[in-house]
Specification:
299 residues, alpha/beta, eight-stranded mixed β-sheet, two-stranded antiparallel ribbon, 11 helices, 19% strand
């Protein structure tokens, strides 16, 4: 049984879309199971329906207004560089309202339901083994994996949304008496979970370069420094997930293929730019193509 696994990574998910497009369309890979965390959870339902053209249009046109109902960021452009800074008004307003997050992401919930239909939900359940999204149960201090086979359409859309909620910048969601947030807070890339669910071959797309060959520029204020700190912590979680995944694959004799970004794509994956995401999608497709061409030559 073949599984496609996609890590978290915000706007860098466009790169994963390009890699997946090459694997499915050019390598004729047919996956039985799809697992994702955060941005990966947005991608996997559409990949499971094999509607890559629709996914490309949706993903490369995402804006901050698509995600945030209360936006904690202001996006700037200076020359070719795009960056975000704090939206002081919205953040202070959240404090006044005694909210626990700097922003709210209710627009993303509407966006998911608008573009992932109930017909597509039913099609996946009829034709695929499983689609799984990763969430963090903060009340229980554990990671949970939510299968499309265990929930209604409305409930599964909620779990996709919850998997993407990168707190404290997005919504903290209460379900069944527990509080949930972004799956990447506990598991950035669920390789081991795919193996435990019976995968015998796993293609895993990791939205980070394999080796850190640059010095990160740390934020100049507490807010941007917090973003850098969260990024650092998630990098450590991701490395642990990959190490655990490799061990599980070796133990169970599972073929594991890892696809990293060949270079650093962005310092801040909460920047959503059509120009950048279109380029990253194309870069992902070309990277997967070159990787497979190199593999063929070395045989």
């Amino acid at each position: 049984m073949k599984a496609l696994v996609i890590s978290g990574g915000g706007s860098k998910g466009a790169f994963a879309g390009g890699v997946a497009q090459y694997l499915i369309e050019q390598q004729n890979k047919e996956y039985d199971m799809f697992l994702g965390t955060s941005t990966g959870s947005l991608l996997v339902p559409h990949l499971a329906t094999n509607n890559i053209g629709k996914l490309y249009d949706i993903f490369t046109n995402v804006k901050q207004s698509t995600i945030f109902s209360i936006n904690p960021f202001v996006q700037h452009k200076k020359g070719d560089r795009e960056y975000v800074s704090i939206n002081y008004f919205n953040s202070i307003l959240q404090f006044i309202k005694r909210k626990r997050t700097f922003g709210e992401s209710k627009n993303l919930r509407k966006h998911i339901k608008k573009h992932f239909t109930e017909e597509e939900f039913n099609l996946i359940r009829e034709t695929k083994e499983d689609v799984v999204v990763t969430v963090s149960n903060l009340s229980k201090n554990r990671v949970e994996y939510k299968s499309i086979n265990d929930f209604s359409y409305e409930e599964f859309c909620d779990w996709i949304w919850i998997s993407c909620n990168y707190i404290p910048f997005m919504s903290l969601v209460k379900r069944d008496g527990f509080e949930y947030a972004d799956g990447g807070l506990g598991c950035v890339i669920p390789i081991r979970e795919a193996i435990l669910r019976g995968a015998t071959e796993v293609d895993a797309i990791v939205l980070e370069s394999e080796n850190l060959e640059y010095n990160k520029v740390l934020g100049k204020n507490p807010f941007s420094l917090m973003i850098n700190l969260f990024g650092h912590l998630l990098d450590q979680v991701e490395k642990a997930d990959i190490a655990i995944g490799k061990l599980a694959a070796k133990h169970r004799d599972v073929k594991l293929n890892l696809y990293y970004t060949p270079t650093q794509l962005t310092e801040n994956s909460l920047i959503f730019s059509k120009r950048l995401m279109t380029k990253w999608w194309e870069d992902g497709f070309e990277y997967a193509k070159q990787k497979h061409m190199g593999a063929e030559v070395s045989k």
